[in-house]
């Protein structure tokens, strides 16, 4: 089951990465390495960070709890899902209404740090892209419920809509809408994703209508896992925001160079870490529910060994063929030789994280299955503090190349911390979910 789930999710993530690369190539050819392109990637940082946090938290917190509740009562599991969906809808609407105008207001005060923050493009795009939080939030919950039922194919394929619609919008309306075209396309794509997932969930028997009737006994264990995961994910995503901010201070094209230098590595990490993580989650949760320590350990060891192998190979290949890979994937019509060399250097340094990143994601799934998300939160907060120090230092001396190296160092440190914490957790005499989570099934 793990192999099948990993394969399906790996293919889905590979297709998603391919479509995302296609969209980035379309944007690059339409607008080049310019301030409008920088504005788009910078404006999408916070909304994408929020949606990424929601997706990560939901998949790590909801799947184990949904499976545990479902083993006792499917009705109660569905009730929990509807209640959490109701909370998400309300919170995402409120966040979207505040985030867009808030960023525009803040950007006027940040203008002294760089003209990009007070540009009309940045403010307009920030307001528009904040709207994606609403459909993305609901989609993440339905995706987790479908994955818990081993319906991986539709969940994986639905992720293609945002980048596909974004690239199509540039092709069809780039001349008239300008840099707003990919942002509008993203919003339409997220709405299409939500429609597909709602249809699939309804067919499977999963409730799609939110409920505002909240049972404290049911929601309490969800929130106990949700809050530390949310804080940890925000801290983890905060490293991206910090790096993008520092990149924006390196001059015109800095954000774009950092973004494009990370794309190919993100493809490899998405296919391996994403596929393995999602595929392992139900298996690890069931092993914990049964008290099967050996099965739990073996699943983690096999997945980590595979991740180490794939990550190591990807590092060697990426560094060896860095410039050639960029020419094949993105073309050269929108890049000067100097820009191409800069992005190539960023890519070579950024890919060093690959083995550590993959192993870290796998081990985090193990911690989530044990409901030890408070430990993951503390590690993420330490990583954020370290990232701020390294990004400020290495970014000042080496520019965007220093930021790429910062990311790699952070993920190596993160993987070491998570492995140490998980080893200590498995060394205990009992093999159960963390007592801090409370009783899941009252």
Task: Please tell me about this protein's structure.
With 442 residues, this protein is an all-alpha fold. 83% of the residues lie in helices and 0% in strands. It contains 17 helices and no strands. Helix 11 runs parallel beside helix 17 and helix 12 runs antiparallel to helix 15. The longest helix is centred in the first third of the chain and has 37 residues. It starts with a helix and ends in a 16-residue tail after the last helix.
Task: Assign an overall shape.
Answer: globular
N-end to C-end Cα span: 29 Å
- In DSSP terms (H or I, runs of 4 or more residues), the helix count works out at 17
Unreliable residue stretches: 435-442
Assign a percent range to the helix content. Answer: over 70%
C-alpha-based Rg, rounded: 21 Å
Q: What's the mean pLDDT score?
A: 81
Structural class: mainly alpha
β-sheet strand percentage: under 5%
What oligomeric state do these chains adopt? Answer: single chain
Overall number of strands: 0
* Series of H and E elements: HHHHHHHHHHHHHHHHH
Main sheet: strands, sense, barrel? none
List keywords for this structure.
mainly alpha, globular, 442 residues
Summarize the structure.
The chain is mainly alpha-helical and 442 residues long. Helix content is 83%, strand content 0%.
């Amino acid at each position: 089951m793990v192999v099948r789930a990993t394969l399906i999710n790996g293919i889905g993530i590979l297709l998603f990465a391919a479509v995302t690369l296609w969209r980035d190539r379309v944007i690059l050819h339409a607008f080049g390495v310019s301030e409008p392109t920088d504005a788009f990637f910078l404006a999408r940082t916070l909304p994408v960070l929020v949606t990424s946090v929601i997706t990560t938290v939901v998949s790590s917190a909801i799947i184990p709890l949904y499976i545990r509740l479902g083993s006792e009562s499917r009705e109660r599991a569905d009730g929990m899902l509807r209640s959490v969906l109701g909370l998400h809808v309300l919170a995402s609407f409120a966040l979207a209404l505040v985030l867009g105008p808030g960023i525009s207001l803040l950007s006027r005060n940040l203008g002294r740090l760089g003209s990009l923050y007070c540009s009309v493009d940045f403010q307009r795009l920030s307001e528009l892209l904040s709207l994606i939080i609403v459909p993305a939030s609901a989609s993440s919950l339905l995706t987790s419920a479908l994955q818990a039922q081993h319906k991986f194919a539709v969940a994986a394929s639905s992720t293609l809509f945002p980048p596909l619609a974004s690239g199509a919008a540039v092709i069809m309306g780039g001349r008239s809408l300008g840099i707003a075209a990919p942002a509008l396309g993203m919003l339409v794509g997220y709405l299409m994703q939500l429609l597909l997932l709602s249809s699939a969930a309804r067919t499977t028997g999963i409730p799609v209508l939110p409920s505002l009737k909240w049972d404290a006994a049911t929601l309490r264990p969800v929130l106990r896992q949700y809050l530390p995961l949310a804080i940890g994910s925000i801290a983890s995503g905060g490293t991206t925001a910090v790096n993008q901010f520092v990149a924006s201070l390196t001059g015109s094209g800095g954000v774009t160079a950092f973004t494009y230098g990370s794309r190919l590595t993100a493809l490899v990490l998405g296919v391996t870490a994403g596929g393995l993580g999602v595929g392992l989650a139900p298996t690890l949760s069931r092993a914990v529910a049964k008290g099967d320590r050996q099965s739990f350990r073996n699943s983690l060891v096999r997945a980590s060994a595979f991740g180490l192998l794939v990550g190591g190979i990807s590092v060697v290949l990426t560094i060896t063929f860095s410039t050639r890979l960029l020419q094949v994937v993105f073309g050269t019509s929108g890049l000067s030789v100097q820009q191409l060399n800069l992005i190539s250097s960023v890519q070579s340094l950024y890919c060093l994280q690959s083995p550590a990143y993959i192993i870290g994601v796998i081990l985090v799934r193990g911690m989530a299955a044990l409901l030890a998300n408070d430990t993951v939160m503390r590690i993420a907060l330490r990583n954020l503090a370290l990232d701020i120090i390294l990004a400020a230092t290495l970014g000042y001396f080496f520019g965007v190349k220093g930021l790429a190296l910062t990311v790699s160092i952070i993920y190596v440190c993160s993987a070491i911390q998570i492995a140490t914490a998980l080893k200590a957790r498995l060394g205990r005499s009992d093999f159960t979910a963390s007592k801090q989570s409370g009783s899941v099934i009252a």
